[in-house]
Amino acid sequence: MSQDQQLGRVAVITGASSGIGAATARSLHAAGYRVALLARRTDRIMALANELGDGAIAISADVTDRDALLEAADRVKQEFGGADVLVNNAGVMLLGPFSSEQRDDYRKMIEVNLLGAITATEVFLDQIKDGGGDLINISSVAGRVSGPGVGVYSASKFAVNGWSESLRRELLPDVRVTLIEPGVVATELPTHITHEATRQGVQQAYDAAEVTAEDVAEIVTFTLQRPRHLVINEILLRPAGQEL
Ligand code: NDP
Questions:
Q1: Residues acting as catalytic residues
Q2: CB of 185 closer than 6 A to ligand 1?
Q3: What is the pLDDT of residue 54?
Q4: Among the CATH numbers 3.40.1190.20, 3.40.50.720, 1.20.120.530, 2.170.150.20, which is that of 3-91+113-140+161-181+211-235?
């Protein structure tokens, strides 16, 4: 898709206040998209919306709060006429040894990384279906392989992968579903780890990270620019009579 064709396409990005989400908002806006920035830290998304200027709005929303997402969807409809793209990016990575002491972290990761993405998708689905939209789910390499101390984070991302694969097949041709699985990306993600020793160790790995949020954002923007005929191929290759 050329830049001209993208002009006016509307992308909703969850977790747009930092890291990959903020970089994706900048990248898509630079490519001609109008962007709706969702996150809880209102000051950050407002500053980013001001920086981007025309075609960027900040909407304070916690992805675990369905009412807030419904209000966000209403605002996107009113201000931009609806969303063409939803980027499910909001996430937390609260690593640490498996223990009852970390139980609040487990609930939070499932509620934000998995249920947050599912809820944002069902809330925005009618908008992105209308006119041929895109759903981008930011998973992780931890959605394919796991290791000690990563269990529930991995579980949340493995679940995102399974759910995305089902949606990818179910929503064709109205919505193209893409899963992005980055490895270690230099962002503030590890700073929220509550288990002190784990945070220090993980932070060291993140301090040495070579992939930037901008690198991942570039992939998201590139992906959205790919022609949709690959989707059509998949439909043609379905066995006769198989609708889903
Ligand atoms: P950041 O911590 O910089 O960004 C996380 C974003 O999620 C923030 O904008 C935060 O906004 C938002 N968020 C967290 N909880 C909620 C919530 N309840 N409701 C709404 N927004 C929320 O980290 P990254 O940019 O690295 O992470 C983005 C995504 O990329 C995550 O899904 C992460 O799992 C994934 N990822 C990251 C990798 C990495 O190495 N960095 C590797 C692979 C995947 P706020 O706090 O303002 O609400």
A1: 153
A2: yes
A3: 97
A4: 3.40.50.720
Cis peptide before 97 (omega within 30 of 0): no
* 85, 136 Cβ separation under 8 angstroms: yes
Residue that the structure tokens 């040894």 belong to: 97
Q: Which pTM value belongs to this model?
A: 0.94
Whether residue 63 has its Cβ less than 6 Å from ligand 1: yes
Identify which of 14, 24, 93, 124 to mutate to test ligand 1's pocket (most ligand atoms within 8 A of the CB).
93
Query: In angstroms, what is the span from residue 205 Cα to ligand 1's centroid?
Result: 17
* 163: Cβ contacts below 8 Å, ≥ 6 apart: 114, 117, 118
Determine phi and psi for 174, rounding to 5 degrees: -65, -40
Q: Tell me how far apart the alpha carbons of residues 105 and 152 are, in angstroms, rounded to a whole number.
A: 9
Q: How far apart are CA 50 and CA 209, in angstroms?
A: 29
pLDDT band at 131 (very low <50, low <70, confident <90, very high): confident
The response to whether residue 62 sits with its C-beta less than 6 Å from ligand 1 reads yes
Residue ranges per structural domain of the chain: 3-91+113-140+161-181+211-235
Mutate to test the pocket of ligand 1, among 44, 92, 181, 192 (most ligand atoms within 8 A of CB): 92
Do 164 and 113 contact (CB within 8 A), yes or no?
A: no
